[in-house]
Amino acid sequence: MTIKGVLFDFSGTLFRVEPVSDWLSAALDECGITLPAAEFARCARELEEFGALPGGANPLRMPERLTELWGVRDKDCELHRRTYTGLAGEVELPDPRLYDLLYDRHMTPEAWRPYPDTKPVLAALRERGVKVGVVSNIGWDLRPVFRAHGLDDFVDAYLLSFEHGVQKPDERLFRAACEAIGLEPAEVVMVGDDRRADGGAAALGCAVHFVDHLPADERPDALLPVLALAEDGR
Asked: Do residues 21 and 48 make contact, with C-beta atoms less than 8 angstroms apart?
């Protein structure tokens, strides 16, 4: 069957979150705090080890008290905040305000950068009449990020886990996405960077295409093959 729709993951697929050092710097600036270089390096290193930046690396050190919460963090916005502020709380920071400021920072458009091929691919799909959905395991509304980067007009539907109370790879989220863009699963390809989460679409009958979760500068054109997969849907 002809592919008439594409579902995209968000983080690591269409957008890349800023590095931990930039994320920490922005929060420190908001607090008016300047750290010595060695102390800044320690904070950044430990925040990364604990996976405290949503959309960044997964934790290398997981506190036992957060293990269960980690598994369901994307089902609810409050669970998401508790998980990531809890991970950041494992790191000694110079001001207690920073834990919430760090979390709030990652939800801003400034914290996210589209991959170089994101806009060209989304624009080409729109021109061909191919329906586009964004399916994300996430605990906050990413629509403002798309609007700020001029990409919202290319998206037909957003299926966000916290709004549905279900996370990928649960096929219910993919089914809702297919319904939202008015297509059968066999007419849709899911594009993502997580073999387990995004690969769940295959159980529903969607085609699946994977990309690597790399820094934006290191992945200029991984989305281009999607254009070959998605035939003209008009």
From this structure: no
Contact 3, 207 (CB under 8 A): yes
Tokens of 154: 């290319």
The gap from C-alpha 228 to its chain's centroid, in whole angstroms, comes to 24
| C-alpha to C-alpha distance for 23 and 142, rounded to whole angstroms | 17
Q: Which residue type, as a one-letter code, is found at position 133?
A: G
Distances (CA, A) of 58 to 55, 101, 196: 8, 20, 14
The verdict on domain 5-16+111-229 having CATH code 1.10.3720.10 is: no
Cα 51 from Cα 62, distance rounded (Å): 8
> How far is it, in rounded angstroms, from Cα 123 to Cα 117?
10
Going from N- to C-terminal start, the domains of the chain cover: 5-16+111-229, 18-110
Q: What is the pLDDT of residues 43-98, one digit of tens each?
A: 999 999 999 999 999 999 999 999 999 999 999 999 999 999 999 999 999 999 99
In one letter, which amino acid is 41? A
| Reported pTM | 0.95
Q: Quote the tokens at residue 36.
A: 């010595």
Pairing of strands 112-114, 15-17: antiparallel
What percent helix, strand, coil does the chain show, rounded to 5?
50, 15, 40
Q: Percent of the chain beyond pLDDT 70?
A: 98
Classify each residue of 64-85 as buried b or exposed e, where b means 16 or more C-beta atoms within 10 Å of its C-beta. eebeebbeebbbeeebbbbbbe
